[in-house]
Specification:
Elements lengths: L1 H31 L2 H10 L2 H15 L4 H132 L6 H14 L4 H9 L4 H126 L1 H11 L3
Helix pairs in contact: 2-7, 3-7, 4-7, 5-6, 7-8
């Protein structure tokens, strides 16, 4: 009897439990179909959402009230919002620095471009000056060579003229010396013939014989031949010959003086011309040296400008490269900031959703935690 009673009680308890289970299952079905359940599933897929639900589960199991849980979530949300504000400030500073860096690179690039343009202008002008100086040097060297050639030609001509003068002078002096030798002989002969004419006349046959003797003796001894010929003449004829010979001798002496004067004048004129050529060459040489110094100075200045241009070109390339790299870095930092902002905004929204669900659908939260076995 007692056993039967116990059996009946067992069956009653079992029936009650079955009814409770059915009621629980029905309630769970209702909670599972709540839209907030789907929200919690979506939240659980997020790493932060999963951690938040774990925290809520621990708070519920430890007996914390809704206000305590909501406060905890509020603090967590505030922490995220604070981090976002801090990151906003950091990003603003970074973007400001990026803008400053970009402006600095732009300024460097512009300065480099200005330098390059200025160098190109100045180098072009210096190249033109170098070309002008080079042309002047070539022209002056050509003029110097021309004067040098003229000087050499004048010296050669002077040597030839001097040689011709000496030759003519030698011939004239030889002729004068011949007359100087013959005239005394002629005067002596004149005296003898005059003495002879006072005694007798020269016969015609004697004159014919004298011409024959001149023809035979002339080539070997002209003076003797002349004496022999004139010895056949009368004194008046000899006097005439003497006078003509003296005229010729005096004319030869005059020619010597004239030739000497002309030679001396030619020497003076040549010296003046050579001195003028020398002075012109000296002046051209000084001008050429000054032009060459100016040319070298211009070349050095051109080379310095080209070095300046190379430096500016290197600065231009470095600035362009630096700007590109810095722009890439700034873009990466901006993208990272934007991604973090989006992620943090999602996390804040998740916390807000959890807060709302806890405040309005705590049973749904508990059911989800139980079903997902979150702890």
């Amino acid at each position: 009897m007692k056993t039967l009673l116990l059996f009946i009680i067992f069956l009653g308890i079992r029936a009650v439990r079955r009814k409770d289970d059915e009621q629980f299952q029905a309630n769970q079905e209702i909670l599972h179909n709540d839209p907030s359940f789907d929200d919690l599933e979506e939240i659980a897929e997020n790493p932060l959402g999963a951690k938040v639900l774990q925290t809520v589960a621990l708070q519920i199991k430890s007996g914390e009230g809704i206000d305590s849980i909501v406060s905890l979530l509020t603090n967590l949300k505030s922490d995220l919002e604070g981090k976002q504000i801090q990151q906003d400030g950091s990003n603003a500073a970074i973007q400001s620095q990026c803008k400053s860096d970009m402006d600095s690179y732009s300024q460097r690039i512009q300065l480099a471009v200005n330098e390059i343009n200025d160098v190109e202008f100045k180098v072009g002008r210096l190249e033109s000056d170098i070309e002008d100086y080079t042309g002047e040097l070539e022209l002056k060297q050509s003029q110097i060579d021309t004067f040098q050639g003229a000087e050499n030609s004048l010296r050669d001509l002077r040597l030839k003229q001097s040689a011709n003068y000496n030759k003519r002078l030698g011939q004239l002096k030889e002729m004068i010396n011949a007359f100087q030798v013959m005239l005394p002989k002629m005067h002596e002969l004149y005296d003898k013939v005059q003495q002879r004419d006072s005694e007798s006349f020269i016969q015609e046959e004697a004159f014919a014989n004298s011409f024959v003797q001149l023809a035979n003796s002339g080539p070997s001894n002209p003076i003797l031949a002349l004496v022999q010929v004139t010895s056949m003449m009368d004194s008046r004829s000899i006097q005439t010959i003497i006078e003509k010979m003296e005229v010729v001798r005096d004319s030869l002496i005059t020619s010597v003086d004239e030739e000497t004067a002309l030679e001396e004048q030619a020497i003076r004129d040549n010296d003046v011309t050579l001195n003028e050529i020398f002075n012109a060459m000296q002046a051209l040489t000084r001008e050429k040296a000054a032009d060459d110094e100016s040319l070298q100075d211009t070349i050095r200045t051109r080379d310095q400008q080209q070095k300046r241009g190379s430096d500016a070109q290197a600065e231009f390339v470095a600035s362009k490269t630096g700007m590109k790299q810095r722009r890439g870095q700034c873009q990466e930092l901006l993208v990272q900031y934007q991604q973090n902002t989006i992620q943090r905004s999602r996390e804040i929204e998740i916390i807000k959703k959890v807060q709302i669900i806890i405040q309005t659908k705590l049973n749904v939260v508990k059911s989800f935690i139980q079903e997902q076995q979150i702890s």
